[in-house]
């Protein structure tokens, strides 16, 4: 297939949606497809780089969360779309809206992904307290963008159920964002000087690293624990001050893929404290490396789906409960090692190759429907299933 992926930016490696788009593009190319990316920062041989669009106030705010907005450059994008079999959209912003309109004008089939959780918006805009605000945002995204699509990629059953609840009528394809097979358990796990706890994610309000720092600070084993927070974001300085105030041994860092894998393979426990998650690929990567997770059991998060039992869940925002779970896994090394193997095995369902096959099926379904609608012939030949 000739596939075009439209996303506002592709050059920020700290943004989860960006990393998902890059993984999908690379994976689809490896499976024999021709893939172009239209985005700010696109630099592949056949990609199309668009200029950044400045939006007063919003650009400054979004920059703190590693988001840029792409500018619709019609002539460039028409050239990119020419000959495409399918256009896939990652975000629901102005660039994508205009590109969707152009794709329709050109008669090219389209699909969309749902990666922008309304709760992420309300948390970072500091308006989560407004009654009904998240339902309003779900409705706004549906009316302004997603109602124009027949098929939507949902990274988890959780977000698919949210879309159905909020009136989304498209066919919802539950497809994990998928993890790279390079994330795997070590041959032999290192013995650390301290009990190594890791969390990966943007340093932002809804990710709740502050809860994890506080929980470690209350642990009876605090002096035996080292915490590593991997990610960047607007709360970094506040979190650093919190760790210092509570005398928590904590390192802040951002690691490229190879070093991230080594770090996860050398860890003892993975904690995902986030209240809001569409999936949390970082948690899957940690599990794939054989780490037992402790996950916030939030009703706004899909991540609890990865827990194999209640020992890997803590009550959302409950510092004492998280502390108790951390202390349990620290004290029970044998059980932690055994469960680490079971978690690594459970992660195989979310391997990227599985996700790519499902995405190909979604693309083929949309292409077939488009062809059949144009010919008005229900017996039209189907696209080869990949």
Please describe what this structure looks like.
This protein has helices at 16-30, 58-63, 74-81, 94-105, 118-124, 133-144, 157-165, 209-218, 236-245, 257-265, 281-288, 319-331, 333-346, 352-375; strands at residues 2-9, 34-40, 48-49, 86-89, 110-113, 151-154, 171-174, 195-200, 225-230, 250-253, 269-272, 293-296, 313-314. The chain has 386 residues and is an alpha/beta fold. The chain has 2 domains: 2-178 and 352-375, Glycogen Phosphorylase B (Rossmann fold, 3-Layer(aba) Sandwich), CATH 3.40.50; 195-348, Glycogen Phosphorylase B (Rossmann fold, 3-Layer(aba) Sandwich), CATH 3.40.50. It has a 7-stranded parallel sheet, sandwiched between helices. α5 crosses α6 (133-144) and α8 packs across α12. The chain is globular.
